[in-house]
Write a structure and sequence with these properties.
Helix content is 27%, strand content 33%. The protein has 128 residues and is of the alpha+beta class.
């Protein structure tokens, strides 16, 4: 019984953490501010042309990680456009714990879903 448990526990934990960035870290909250005191309307869009998201700056929004750069533009031409580039998501390092067999599978899952990448948590746009 103990031998089976010693094998089952590590195996279960490896399977549980497969693709952990996709499972636990697929969305991100970003705070966007400006160098002005005005409230401004912004359009957030990904470089892949997916559906844009609208918000008021300053403010906070939750976006889906998809591995594409995020473009922040003014809806009324009030500030300069800003590109927020993706950075490596450190949560993906847990995929390595999956070892030789499941590590490549979970890393591939995170890469395909875009969860392998993250954005700056706070960005500032500059008024024109």
């Amino acid at each position: 019984m103990k031998k089976k448990l010693l094998i089952a526990l590590p195996l279960a934990s490896v399977i549980m953490f497969s693709g952990c960035a996709t499972l636990f870290d697929s969305k991100q909250t970003i705070s966007i501010s400006s160098d002005s005191d005005k409230r401004m309307k912004a359009v957030l869009s990904y470089s892949d042309g997916s559906k844009p998201q609208y918000m008021t700056i300053p403010g906070t929004t939750t976006i889906k990680k998809n591995g594409k750069d995020l473009k922040i533009e003014s809806a009324n031409n009030e500030f300069q456009p800003l590109i927020v580039e993706t950075e490596f998501n450190k949560v993906v390092l847990f995929d390595i714990l999956g070892g030789v067999y499941l590590g490549p599978l979970s890393t591939t899952t995170d890469a395909v879903s875009g969860a392998m990448w993250e954005y700056d948590e706070a960005v500032t746009v500059h008024e024109k």
